[in-house]
Structure formats: structure tokens, C-alpha cells
Amino acid sequence: MVNVRARVPFKVGLNSDIEADLLSFNGLESGKEHVALIFQDADKQSEPPLVRMHSECLTGDVFHSSRCDCGEQLDETLNKMGEQGGVLLYLRQEGRGIGLYNKIDAYELQSQGMNTYEANNHLGFGDDLRDFTEAALMLKSLGISDIRLITNNPKKINELEALGIIISEVVGTKAHVKDGNESYLRTKASRGKHRFNFD
Ligand SMILES: Nc1nc2c(ncn2[C@@H]2O[C@H](COP(=O)(O)OP(=O)(O)OP(=O)(O)O)[C@@H](O)[C@H]2O)c(=O)[nH]1
Ligand SMILES: [Zn+2]
């Protein structure tokens, strides 16, 4: 049984006044410390809330690494939810589930010419080890079963629906192209079937 523990208000975002409640959970089987940020009490409204399942990326979220778009997607989400309300699940699934050490090994292989998926496979991992069961449990424990999901990734849509969450709308993120991450984004589109708009 998953239970919501504390619910603490604070302000988030760079130079901003966005207010959110930080929630922790207990009872998650993996023992991971996934957390939720709730904007504008979106869990208590009648409309399906905006939801983002954001997978941890220390290098991108904290250091705004040039190799990926995670930090930009996180900032985009904070701003959007600051305006419209929403629920951000911050999931501790670093490196699509392989962890930081392995992700750094994968980066080394990418520097030698492999793409993200090939590097994962070369290290003996599947394309993507993430599982969204606990994310679905967190939503259910908040009383949320119908959502507007922020993602470009069809795997997230399919898995959440299979876990009984209704997705009434899919909201894409921008393509945050910058020096260093374009081939990463293009590989997500070609191999991972992410829906990007590269205009
Ligand atoms: N294994 C591996 N993981 C990476 C790499 N670059 C970023 N990640 C991880 O990928 C995760 C983010 O997944 P993405 O595939 O970028 O995007 P997504 O969350 O599936 O899709 P969106 O919802 O559209 O953002 C984070 O956990 C990152 O740490 C990489 O080169 N190798
Ligand atoms: Zn990243």
C-alpha cells in the first residue's frame, strides 16, 4: 500500500515565484525515493490534471549538461504547471533505469560513435529499463486516474494506460535542441519513436 506522507509548500524554479507542494511517499516496493510536486492543488480539482513523469537525470536536471534535454524539459514543466497547475512525479530512474555510473559508461561509448541505445545494448542493458508501475501507484494514491500527460514518448503513454490510468490528452514538450544534443534527440525520434517537432 502506497501512502502519501508529508506535504510541504515551497517555491520552485529559477528566479520565479512558482508555488508547489512537495510530497513524499512510503510503501514503494523499490525503496526508491520518488517524490511528487503538486501545483495549485491539482489533485483536488475536478478536471484531469497535467501530469509529467520526469525521470531523474542528474547531469541534465542539475548541471544542464549539453548532452540531453532533461533540464530544459524540467524547466518547461515547472513553468507550465506554475501557470496551469499539475502534478510532477520526479522518478529516481537515472539513465533510463541503468543508474548514473552505467550512464557515464554509456556516454563514453557514445563519444566513440555509438548512439544512446547502442551504448546501452553494448553494456548488456535493454533500450530502456524504466517501469512506471510505481508512478501509476503514486497517482492512484493521490486519487488521480484521469490525466493530461506531458511527454513525447509513446512508451510512457502505453505503459500508463496498461496500468489503468486514463490519458485524456498528450501534451508534447518542445524540442530543446542545443549544441551537443541534436543527435541524441534525433535518435529518440527515430529509434524511440518520440514525437518531436523539430521546426
Ligand atoms: N542510458 C542513458 N540514459 C540517458 C542518456 N541520456 C539521458 N538519459 C536518461 O534518460 C532519461 C530521460 O529519458 P528520455 O528518453 O530523454 O525522455 P523520456 O522521459 O523517455 O521522454 P519524454 O517524456 O518525452 O521526456 C533520464 O533518466 C536520463 O538520465 C543516455 O545517453 N543513456
Ligand atoms: Zn538528461
TrEMBL record:
Highest rank taxon of the organism: Bacteria
- Indicate which residues the UniProt annotation says bind Zn(2+): C57, C68, C70
Q: How is the cofactor bound?
A: Binds 1 zinc ion per subunit.
Q: Quote the pathway field.
A: Cofactor biosynthesis; riboflavin biosynthesis; 5-amino-6-(D-ribitylamino)uracil from GTP: step 1/4
Q: Does the keyword GTP-binding apply?
A: yes
Q: Which GO terms describe its biological process?
A: riboflavin biosynthetic process
Q: Which top EC class is given?
A: hydrolase
Q: What does the record give as the reaction this protein catalyses?
A: GTP + 4 H2O = 2,5-diamino-6-hydroxy-4-(5-phosphoribosylamino)-pyrimidine + formate + 2 phosphate + 3 H(+)
Keyword annotations of the record: GTP-binding, Hydrolase, Metal-binding, Nucleotide-binding, Riboflavin biosynthesis, Zinc
Regarding protein family, the annotation reads:
In the N-terminal section; belongs to the DHBP synthase family. Belongs to the GTP cyclohydrolase II family.
Query: What is the protein's given name?
Result: GTP cyclohydrolase-2
Report the source organism: Photobacterium chitinilyticum
